[in-house]
Amino acid sequence: MSKYQHIKEEAYKANMELPKLNLVIFTFGNVSAVDRAAGVFAIKPSGVPYEDLSPESMVIVDFDGEIVEGKLRPSSDTKTHAVLYKHWPTIGGIAHTHSTYARGLFDLLPGGVGEWPLTAKTPSCCASP
Question: How far apart are CA 128 and CA 125, in angstroms?
């Protein structure tokens, strides 16, 4: 059994909720679960259909985006998750969906897409030039 089994199971369970709640289609979206003491997180592998996922298929990655454990390629969003975990120590998990309703609400915000203001808490690594 992996020493990271606890976060693999957390990430798996959370990922399995996404299609049940109609928050994703196809293989889009992902959830990661973090173990801050170990400095790693578990994330959904890239391109794997939700019905084919298992706790063992989750990929363990460090805060620099390097694979620590796993046979599959991690989500294409892995680097973003790594940067967020590295720079915001209070984040306990990340969910990335392509929900139609969330996207629609975001489009209604003042300024619309691409003009949502960054806050003072946004680290320089994440701000657009």
Answer: 9
For the whole model, what pTM was predicted? 0.79
Q: Is 14 domain-assigned?
A: yes
Helix or strand run (H / E) with residue 68: strand 67-69
Look up the CATH number of the domain holding residue 88: 3.40.225.10
Residue type, 109: L
- How many Å apart are CA 13 and CA 19, to the nearest integer? 11
Q: Is 89 exposed, middle or buried (0-12, 13-18, 19+ CB in 10 A)?
A: exposed
pLDDT tens, residue order, the chain (129 aa): 899 999 999 999 999 999 998 888 888 899 999 999 999 999 999 999 999 999 999 999 999 999 999 999 999 999 999 999 999 999 999 999 877 776 666 666 665 555 544 443 444 444 443
**Among the listed residues 22, 63, 67, the one whose alpha carbon sits nearest the alpha carbon of residue 46:** 67
User: Are the C-beta atoms of residues 19 and 97 closer than 8 Å to each other?
Assistant: no
